[in-house]
Write a structure and sequence with these properties.
elongated; Methionyl-tRNA Fmet Formyltransferase, Chain A, domain 2; 9 helices; Rossmann fold; alpha/beta; 26% strand
């Protein structure tokens, strides 16, 4: 396949190491803009398979690139600096960096920068675009899906935005609102957000092709940043309320490390939680259920080994 865009085509470089990025790019390849030849993809960049075990939601990009006949590079360079020359040679109008665990540097942001800024009448904007599953400017940062559940949010969104040097702080192109349903857990929300990435990719392709991309600055007054979560943060403690425990367990399903308790020196992973029945003795097991005393009551914890 010719790696250079023809006159009138909008060339995109696609970067991801995550399920969300793959779904967004599937949306792009399904779009009328791509099928009609208005968009061209000269290069795709994915995260090296050696990072699979340590990346929640990891997805290899090579299969999709091969399916579409697009040149593919696998890398361990999260900032992409070692690939700047090859990205520049692809002459992208836009670089889509989605589900990527590192901030890319100014050397990458500046590759499509000047032209993109002129197109949108906003000098200084890069032509690099990302997606983040919160209602930005709320929830910038890491682990957005678990935090959405833990913080008991009633709604969230998939935000599509221009990348700037600061994480998740660039102008908003589009937002796709999602209700956080009763009983929602990180697995169900992950699946819904992944589906929304497909829709966002489909829509974005059309906007990029016809030059109708516009954006609005985020309101810094309402910006919040959610910190990185580590596996140890999933420990269930008796100082938590029953509601806090319920939310923590729900927040750590799907591709995320499970919530857990320590029991007789053994780490026991938890996949479910429910109210404890009156009259049962605390600390006893019923099958794989563990009765656990909270700060304000008791709950049953279901061990991960019984999850279906």
């Amino acid at each position: 396949m010719d790696n250079q865009a023809s006159a009138g085509q909008v060339p995109l470089v696609l970067v991801t190491g995550h399920t969300f990025g793959v779904r967004a790019f599937e949306g792009i390849f399904s779009s009328r803009a791509y099928l009609d030849g208005k968009i061209q993809v000269p290069l795709m960049i994915g995260l090296d398979d050696s990072h699979a075990a340590g990346t929640v939601g990891f997805a290899a990009l090579g299969r999709l690139a091969a399916e579409q006949g697009v040149r593919y590079i696998s890398t361990s360079d999260g900032r992409l600096s070692t690939l700047a020359g090859q990205i520049r040679a692809a002459r992208p109008a836009y670089i889509l960096v989605i589900g990527w665990s590192h901030l890319v540097g100014e050397d990458i942001l500046s590759i499509p920068g000047g032209a993109a800024g002129s197109r949108h009448g906003m000098p200084g904007w890069s032509g690099c675009i990302g997606m983040h599953p919160t209602m930005l400017p709320t929830g910038r940062g890491q682990a957005p899906i678990p935090w959405t559940i833990i913080k008991d949010q009633e709604k969230t969104a998939l935000s599509v935005f221009f990348l700037v040097a600061d994480a998740d702080a660039g102008p908003i192109i589009a937002q796709y609102e999602l209700e956080v349903r009763n009983g929602e857990n990180s697995a169900s929300l992950f699946y819904r957000v992944a589906h929304t990435h497909f829709t966002a990719g489909l829509d974005l392709a059309e906007r990029l092709a016809d030059g109708s991309v516009s954006a609005r600055a985020q309101d810094e007054e309402f910006a919040t940043r959610w910190p990185k979560r580590r596996p140890k943060d999933g420990e269930i403690l008796d100082t938590m309320t029953c509601r806090e425990i319920t939310l923590l367990v729900r927040a750590l399903l799907g591709p995320y490390p499970r919530a857990f308790i320590w029991r007789a020196g053994e780490k026991v992973e938890i996949s479910g939680v429910g109210p404890a029945a009156d009259g049962d003795g605390a600390g006893t097991d019923e099958g794989r259920r563990i009765r656990f005393r909270c700060r304000d009551g008791e709950v049953y914890l279901r061990t991960a080994s019984t999850a279906t």
